[in-house]
Amino acid sequence: MTPLPPHAFTLRQLQYALAVAETLSFRRAAERCRVAQPSLSTQVAQLEAALGVRLFERDRRRVLVTAAGGALLARARRVLVEADDLAGAARAAGDPLDGALRVGVIPTVSPYLLPRAAPALRAAYPRLAITWVEDKTEELVRRLDAGALDAALLALEAELGEVEHAEIARDPFVLATPRDHPLGARSGPASAAELRGADVLLLDDGHCLRAQALDVCARARAHELEFRATSLPTLVQMVAGGAGVTLLPELALAAETRRGDLRLRPFAAPVPHRTIALVWRRRSPLAPALQRLARTVREAYPKAGRA
Q1: Which CATH architecture has domain 171-273?
Q2: CA neighbor of 170 nearest in space, from 306, 283, 9, 67
Q3: What percent of the chain has pLDDT over 90?
Q4: Per-residue pLDDT tens for 277-299?
Q5: What top-level class would CATH report for the domain 11-89?
Q6: Is 119 helix (H, G, I), strand (E, B) or coil?
């Protein structure tokens, strides 16, 4: 039998090197990894020696990833993702819902769905501990791909890369206007054509809801105002103050329209909407458990929008 030589480096060394690459700082990387900086520096140096390649250029002022280092660290990231999946497969051999999961969620979903979904999940899986991570779609997809998240609640219309998913609900958009706005005074469902020339307020760049609403507005030749809100509550207050009109997801209406300062009109068919789903990495060993998780979230979703 051919003897198996030990590997010249460890997963921990790969984690340290990736932390340096992501922060471009040995000090911040050490803080992220919760290790003393000299120890992290020593481990990274040992990794470079084992590989025979300099991963970083560093001096007293800055740290840069070398060209060779960038290529190798991309492969290191894939190795760590596979290692995480190995650990996930081991959990799946038992009960993956009897442990911990890291689940991302976008800001235009979390405050409106989690108050219903989180208690339902706790009741259904009392031994499961979920760490919720709120961020914009691009960052959540990056963390999911890197193995830092197990799953995420996102809109399928966004750029998500190669993922698997379970649909939660179709979330239709509603036209929201100030109380005295002509578009709000009309009766019956709104059409996209009515937005032609209207002043429209949208969320800031990075929110997938912005891209979805912008697509509707572009086809209607609406005029987007310069102001871009960082959250739906800000957007609602600006519209209520008479700054323009907007598109709101139905999921947010109960929370954001309590004061009655807006007029709301549903859209006529074809109704613009987003599709909320739980997504995870392709071939994740946690897929069957995440399907069960999605089923519970779907049952907790407000009845009108369930998939």
Answers
A1: 3-Layer(aba) Sandwich (3.40)
A2: 306
A3: 56
A4: 999 999 888 899 999 999 999 99
A5: mainly alpha
A6: helix
